[in-house]
User: Fold this.
Amino acid sequence: MQSSETLSEVSAAYRVHPLLDPKLPSHQPAVAKMWLTAYKRIKRDPSAERYLSRAYSMDPGGPDETLRILEGFCRDADVYLDDLLRLLPDDVVRELQPLPETREGNQLRLLFLTTFESKDPRVRYEAQRKLYLAKLLFDVDHCRSVRDAPMHKDSFEALLDDVLWSDAVNGKSVEICCLLRENGDGASHLDVGVPQSSASRCWRFDVRRLPGRRGRPDIEVYHYKSRFKKDATPAPDPEVKTGLWHMLEKPRWPQLGRRSGSIVSKMIRRGIDDPRMIQDLLGAMFIVGSRADAYALERRLIHGLGGPFRWRDRVDTLAGEGDREWLGQQSSSGFRVLKQIVDILVDDSGKAAPYLFPVEIQIYPVEDYLRTLYDTHFASHTSYKRRQFLQELMPLLFPAEIYGKVVRRLADEANETGENGE
Assistant:
C-alpha cells in the first residue's frame, strides 16, 4: 500500500494535471463537469469539435488547420509514452503500452467519445490521458520561453566567450580510467584513476586552464557543455578503438525528435502547469579538476555574470550533506554537485526593455562527475532517471487503479535498489 505521503503527492499532482487522474469525477467534480459539458456538445454537434480546437488555439478566424495540427500532437502523445517505456523490461512494456483502440484514435471528437462512452475502464483512461498529454505537448511547443531558448543559449555562449573563455589556455589531454568493484557487503564502489585495463572504462578530456587571479592557482576545466532541455542528455558515446570514451550529447527522446518529452515529464512530476515555470530549460555543465576548482570557478562565474544580484537557489553537496534535501528525491546520496540558477539579462530584439532568462549552472569535480556517467553505478544519470520515472512519473501516467500491481511493484523495486545502492 502507498504511504500517506505518497498519496498526498499524487493528489497534488493530479490537482494540477486533472485529466491524468483516473478518479477525476470524485476528486474534482467541478473540473470533470467542464469536460463533461464539452463532451455533450461534441456528441450532439460534430461541428463543435472544430470550434473547440480552433478556440483552443485562439485562431477562430484563421486557416482551418487546427484539427490536423492537434492530431499530430495526439500521435506525439503515444510516441512520448513509447519513449518512457523504453526504460522498462519488454514483458512490462507489453502490459503497459497504449492499447490499439487508443493508439489509433487521434481525432479530438473520437477521444472525447471514447473517454466518456467506452465500456473498458482502461480504454476510457487512455483516451483521457492522450487528450491531456497532447494538450501539454502543444502548450510546451507554443511557449515563448521554450521557443526562444535556442536564441538564449546562443546569447549565453557569447557571454561566456567574453567573460570566461577569453582567458582560457589549452592544456594537456588527460585520460582517466574507472573500475567498478563490489565491496564485501555486496555494495558497489567506483574506483577513479585506476590503470587502464580490460575491466576498466576510460575517458579522455582536453583540459582548458583558466589562469588564477591574485596569485591563486589555475582552474582546470576538463569539460564544458551547455544544453537545451528539449534536445539531449549527457551520455558517453560508444567506445572508440583506443579503449577511451569521449563525451557526447545524445537525444533523450529519440523517437519524439526535438519535441518536448523531457519538459512535459518534469511538469507532470513536479506538479507544474505552466512551462514558463521550468527554471532549467537551459543548463551549463562544467567539469573541473577538483573541489577547490569548483569553488574557484563559481567565484569567477559570479563575478562575470552579474554579481551576486543575479544568482539564486544555490545547492552544494560537495561540502557536505546540508543541502541534500534541495536535490530531487531520487538523487543518490553519492551525487556531488555545486549548482545555482543565474538570471541573464538580454536585449529584446523588438527594441523593448531588456528581459531576464534563467540558466542552471552545474559544476562537478571530475571524479564525482564520472560516477554519474557509469551506468551500473547507483549515482549514474541513467540510474537516476530510471528511479525518477518509476517512483515519480509512472504512478501518475500508469495509475495502479487502471494497470494493476505491476506499477506499484516496479516502484517498490526501484526504491529497494536505491536503498541498497546508497
Q: What stands out?
A: Residues 4-142 form one domain. The chain has two domains: 4-142, 145-379. Confidence is low (pLDDT under 50) at residues 1-7, 232-258, 418-422.
